[in-house]
Amino acid sequence: MPSAQSANELYNDKPFFELLVNSYQRIVGKPLVPDNRDEQWLYESAPFAVVAHNSNPDPIFIYANIAAQRCFGYDWKEITSLPSRLSAEPINRADRQILLDRVKKHGHYSGYCGIRIAKSGHRFSIDDGCVWQLIDQDGSMQGQAAIFSIPG
User: Fold this and answer.
1) Over the Cα atoms of the chain, what is R_g?
2) What is the pTM of this model?
3) Rounded to an integer, what distance in angstroms lies between the CA atom of residue 64 and that of residue 75?
């Protein structure tokens, strides 16, 4: 992590925001947020969902903006204690792992489509999502992140 803060504080953590936006810019080649937008905007007001998980063998979500929390139906405390594999039903976890392995090998994957499951059991579709490696300025892999449009 870019700081000693726990996941419970990453929603307003400037170094983590910089990790998200800088790694996206370097790896995907375009900006994640419009100019002059900050971590508060990304967390509270972004019109798209952003999630991130750490690099543990069984990764845990460490970030989910408000849009993502609405999609998944978890609040901040709940989602930041959730293994990210549980965002997909068991039948879809193999495909999800193939995607994550592809991202690990190539740095990112754009155009991702898949089905995810909310806390309530409601299924929703992710269309044209992008998953990328969270690589810090020293070249260390800190996890992976994803951006997707809010299902409507």
Assistant:
1) 14
2) 0.92
3) 9
More confident residue, 107 or 4: 107
- Which alpha helices (H) appear in 1-152, and where do they start and end? 14-28, 39-44, 66-72, 76-79, 93-106
Sheet bearing 108-117, strands edge to edge: 61-64, 48-53, 141-149, 123-135, 108-117
pLDDT tens figures, 42-59:
999 999 999 999 999 999
Report the Cα–Cα distance between both ends of the chain, in Å, rounded.
Answer: 33
Mean pLDDT, rounded, for 85-107: 95
Q: Which two tokens stand for residue 84?
A: 């990210």
| Cβ-contact 150, 67 below 8 angstroms | yes
Cβ atoms of 27 and 116 within 8 Å: the answer is no
Q: Is 53 exposed, middle or buried (0-12, 13-18, 19+ CB in 10 A)?
A: buried
Alpha carbon distances (Å) from 77 to 38, 81, 87, 120, 127? 22, 7, 15, 16, 26
